[in-house]
Amino acid sequence: MTVNDTAIRDLYARLLAAWNGRDRDEFAGLFAPDGVLIGFDGSTAQGREIREHLETVFRDHETAAYVAKVRDMRPLGSEGALLRAIAGMVPPGGSELNAEVNALHSLVVERVDGNWRIVLFQNTPAQFHGRPELVDAQTAELERARASGEAVT
């Protein structure tokens, strides 16, 4: 078996769409039973905790919407893969990316019973301390991807 890039990109797009739609059940349902979520603030949830964690997040916060661009993907054997992306967020009611919350996404997936499932989703702040030009470059790249229709939302 080979890694299906399209299926994995679709899984990532579904993850972001679930976040953007504030659908904790859909979001959590994309993970393997023992899958791990590492959030922007370092909070961690595993398995069933993911749904509960998102219930609190969505209840207590007006969440921003993701805009992302897949940077690369590589197989991890025949039943796994690593997807890496850059991401930005558009605040509720806004239309521009908030560069202060740019992130790097790492998504590790594996095929479970014939379906791709998320084993690890890590959302790391991309603050590039002391290098504001890198923040600006990432934001500009995301804006170009959004304008061209290449962005994942």
CATH names the topology as Nuclear Transport Factor 2, Chain: A
The count of strands amounts to: 6
User: What is the annotated CATH architecture?
Assistant: Roll
Derived from helix and strand composition plus strand pairing, the structural class reads: alpha+beta
Share in helix: 25-40%
Q: Can you put this structure into words, describing what you see?
A:
This protein has 153 residues and is of the alpha+beta class. It has a single domain (5-148), classed as Nuclear Transport Factor 2, Chain: A (Roll). Helices cover 33% and strands 35% of the residues. It is built from four helices and six strands, in the order ααββαββββα. It has helices at 5-20, 24-29, 49-60, 132-148, and strands at residues 31-38, 44-46, 65-75, 80-90, 103-112, 115-125. The chain has a six-stranded mixed sheet with strand order 2-1-6-5-4-3, sandwiched between helices. A hairpin with a 2-residue loop joins strand 5 and strand 6. The radius of gyration is 15 Å and the shape is globular.
Which key phrases capture this entry?
153 residues; globular; 6 strands; six-stranded mixed beta sheet
Helix and strand topology:
Blueprint: H1 5-20, H2 24-29, E1 31-38, E2 44-46, H3 49-60, E3 65-75, E4 80-90, E5 103-112, E6 115-125, H4 132-148
Parallel strand pairs: 1-6
Antiparallel strand pairs: 1-2, 3-4, 4-5, 5-6
Describe this structure in a few short sentences.
With 153 residues, the chain is α+β, with helices and mostly antiparallel strands. It is built from four helices and six strands, in the order ααββαββββα.
